[in-house]
Amino acid sequence: MEKLVIIPTYNEKDNIRQIIDAVFSLQQGFHILIVDDGSPDGTGNIVRELQAQHPGELFLEERSGKLGLGTAYIHGFKWALQRQYAYITEMDADFSHNPKDLIRLHHACAQDGADVAVGSRYVNGGKTENWPWDRALLSYGASIYVRLITWIPVKDATAGFVCYKREVLEKMDLDAIKFVGYAFQIEMKFTAWKLGFRIQEVPITFIDRKEGYSKMSKGIVKEGILGVLKIQWQSLFGK
């Protein structure tokens, strides 16, 4: 048990079968953990059907309701650490992250000396596709804002396609990670950086989802704006 991909889901029946098939088709030894927040569209049922085809490789953790992206990943991280996975990657279910890039993120940690590998839109070679201009502007503006406030040397701090070495997650106090949306991704990278771990950005092409619906909301954006200030305040002045 070496490599785990954690995919949080809520109403992803249009994508879940294809994303699972795409990861396993890489034939790189990745296991998959789906953390489903009680999807009423039957996402969990589809995963259960596929588990028969992938015994010991495909796992499902079901939660009682929509509890947030951040808590889903924390749940998955703890699950992975209990089972001794060496490399733990988080990825979206909607194909905005190309499953083939899992290999490059893993290589950055396993071969290139990174402790955290970030699939980045904003380093040389990285880009976005099919995004409306307002969302592209919001995302790029957020990346600049995060660096100005926190001084973190990461150009895509809100990225959700990230590979962690288990040592990084072991050293973190996962229960102290409180944010659930945009700010969760920032808080995780900021915490890893403050603990002295090496973060490497790997250029990717981020493609807007083709099936299903975006989970973006005004509340998530607000959390990101205010959360960044809180993260830096707590770092400078303590809790």
Description:
The protein has 239 residues and is of the alpha/beta class. It has a single domain (3-237), classed as Spore Coat Polysaccharide Biosynthesis Protein SpsA, Chain A. The protein is built from 8 helices and 9 strands. Strands 3-2-1-4-7-5-8 form a 7-stranded mixed beta sheet, sandwiched between helices. Strand 1 (3-9), helix 1 (16-25) and strand 2 (30-36) form a beta-alpha-beta unit. Helix 7 (182-194) runs parallel beside helix 8 (218-237). It starts with a strand and ends with a helix.
The overall pLDDT, averaged over residues, is 90
Helix and strand element order:
EHEHEHEHEEHEHHEEH
Strand adjacency order, main sheet:
3-2-1-4-7-5-8
Radius of gyration: 17 Å
Number of domains: 1
The total of helices stands at 8
In what range is the share of β-strand residues?
Answer: 15-25%
What's the name of the CATH homologous superfamily? Spore Coat Polysaccharide Biosynthesis Protein SpsA, Chain A
| SS-derived structural category | alpha/beta
Compact summary:
One of its GO terms (cellular component) is membrane. With 239 residues, the chain is of the alpha/beta class.
Features:
alpha/beta, Spore Coat Polysaccharide Biosynthesis Protein SpsA, Chain A, 7-stranded mixed β-sheet
List the helices and strands and how they pair.
Elements (H helix, E strand, L loop, with lengths): L2 E7 L6 H10 L4 E7 L6 H9 L6 E5 L6 H14 L4 E4 L10 H10 L5 E5 L6 E3 L3 H18 L11 E4 H6 L10 H13 L4 E5 L1 E3 L10 H20 L2
Parallel strand pairs: 1-2, 1-4, 2-3, 5-8, 6-9
Antiparallel strand pairs: 4-7, 5-7
Helix pairs in contact: 5-8, 7-8
